[in-house]
């Protein structure tokens, strides 16, 4: 085995570690950083949208703005934390070293080369329920959740999705959702509130690698979702093992992974109304 001297190492990622597993891990980290950065594109628009709606009272306006502002702050904090992690710095440093050794074919990134970078608003609507007419008077965030409101959201969800089991445990403030076969997924949702932020936590009873990957794809979106939007997104996993990726049109990617990422899409109908649905993507396709 070759000896690795200190001069050959600028981080804990050494040449001997550049096997397939390490490369895939590094690419996954870069993808996570990229996804976090993409979410920041909507930070200011999402906060502005919260004050452009027609509130029924000053208190409601304040609630909308506070929720949007805290969601934006959480997204920025999450990105900063991700970029400051040792693993992220190692991956970026390794990429910098590689580029310094052989820069042939590597060019700078320019927005004009990726026309959809600034078009997210046209493709993926903000998760602010006030923009969605159906949720205008029923938005329930983790911050202002109370048993009566959450129970009403769960009951409406069940009415809209016959055959789906959903219940709300008032003692533990836990929403349980079961997607029957072929998905066969048990979701558990709980609100998480602190003095400065509010969100939800989502987990599955099932503990397979697929379910873990699905929860990891869901978690970054929780800061900006109200209860209704969250339930609708979870329902979109009912065809997890049969719906192909919207981008590549394949069910499995090159690593035999299912499209576990969900992205909210709105399309304008003939009457001027908007219709919302959740599209599926492989992590590598986002």
Q: Would you tell me the structural class of the helices and strands?
A: alpha+beta
Point out poorly predicted stretches.
1-17, 117-138
Straight-line N-to-C gap: 39 Å
The succession of helices and strands, N to C, reads HHHHHHEEEEHHEE
Task: Kindly provide the radius of gyration, computed on alpha-carbon positions and rounded to a whole number of angstroms.
Answer: 21 Å
How would you sum up the global shape?
Answer: globular
Largest sheet: 4 strands, antiparallel
The total count of helices amounts to 8
What amount of the residues lies in strands? Answer: 15-25%
Q: Name the strands of the widest sheet in spatial order.
A: 1-2-3-4
Instruction: Give the mean pLDDT.
Output: 77
Main attributes of the structure:
four-stranded antiparallel sheet, 6 strands, two-stranded antiparallel ribbon, globular, alpha+beta, 8 helices, Mediator of RNA polymerase II transcription subunit 27, transcription, Mediator_Med27
Helix/strand layout:
Layout: H1 20-39, H2 43-52, H3 58-84, H4 86-101, H5 120-123, H6 147-160, E1 165-169, E2 174-179, E3 185-193, E4 198-204, H7 209-218, H8 227-235, E5 261-268, E6 274-281
Antiparallel strand pairs: 1-2, 2-3, 3-4, 5-6
Describe the 3D structure.
- It is a single chain.
- With 286 residues, this protein is of the alpha+beta class.
- It has one domain.
- 38% of the residues lie in helices and 15% in strands.
- It has helices at residues 20-39, 43-52, 58-84, 86-101, 120-123, 147-160, 209-218, 227-235, and strands at 165-169, 174-179, 185-193, 198-204, 261-268, 274-281.
- The strands form two sheets. The protein has a four-stranded antiparallel sheet. It has a two-stranded antiparallel sheet with strand order 5-6.
- Strand 1 and strand 2 (174-179) form a beta hairpin.
- Helix 1 crosses helix 4 (86-101), helix 2 (43-52) packs antiparallel against helix 3 and helix 6 runs parallel beside helix 8 (227-235).
- The longest helix is centred in the first third of the chain and has 27 residues, at 58-84.
- The radius of gyration is 21 Å and the shape is globular.
- The model is unreliable at 1-17 and 117-138 (pLDDT under 50).
- Keywords: Nucleus, Transcription, Transcription regulation.
- Belongs to the Mediator complex subunit 27 family.
- It comes from Stereocaulon virgatum.
- Its main location: nucleus.
